[in-house]
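Anyone able to model this chain together with adenosine monophosphate?
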Amino acid sequence: MIVVHTKKELDEQLAEWRQHGDHIAMVPTMGNLHAGHLSLVELAREHAERVVVSIFVNPTQFSEDEDFEEYPRTLERDTRLLKRPAADLIFAPDVETMYPFGLKDATTISVPRITENFCGASRPGHFDGVTSVVARLFALVQPDAAFFGQKDYQQQLVIRHMSQDLNLPVAIITGETIREEDGLAMSSRNQYLTDDERANAPVLYQVLSGVGEELQNGRRDYEELESESVAKLTDAGFAVDYFSIRRAQNLEIPDRDCDELVVLAAAHLGDARLIDNTVVTV
Ligand code: AMP
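re: yes, here you go
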């Protein structure tokens, strides 16, 4: 496995692989890897001869009051983890490589509507940063397929929308959410939790799963279910950002007949902002 930092090194390696007719799968990440990222690498391996993992803490998707500076950067450890399951190449660019005109003159790609609510509402500008960096990574790597986690449900829908709308020649594939044994979705931000908060954190997924069961059992009073859930989480010490039952396909408000739902939540526990979701077919 090789680690490259520049466009030149990346281009040279990709050209060699393409000459051999190898397909390229890519897993974009911000590093500080855990089993959730590694499961995407394993999935990517099933789809292509070559797997590229990008590691880039993208400044444009953090707002000023967020954790860009503190975000854990652990390239050495990440490189070790990516030996098994094996990635072929780690692309770890610096900001100048990703934004050659500088951040102020950088082109922004912006997906409307589906970015307006949920994480888009609580993190203004976040999705513009995500789509802009993912489009840049796609242009640099030109992967045949790219892999994203269901944990960031809205994000993968936004990226699908961008890719379809711009006819980008890349298949977008979503991998399941990988969880700790107690149900907490793995996340680089879980390390911001104190021991007490960590012990409490699985309540988020318990409440989401409980709503999933209620929906399976026939409940359709979505708003009532949402407010009951917010109350449960608030009682458990969470500061709820959103808790919502939506159409899985597009995050629109579902009617009673909708058979593919997603229950989405984001909530703060101490310094950590946790997000999670469950998809329910009824
Ligand atoms: P990040 O490094 O947090 O930007 O995440 C990089 C990719 O890994 C994104 O597509 C995430 O959705 C995905 N990811 C993060 N956590 C998990 C998880 N627990 N299970 C599966 N995928 C995940």
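The longest strand covers residues 260-269.
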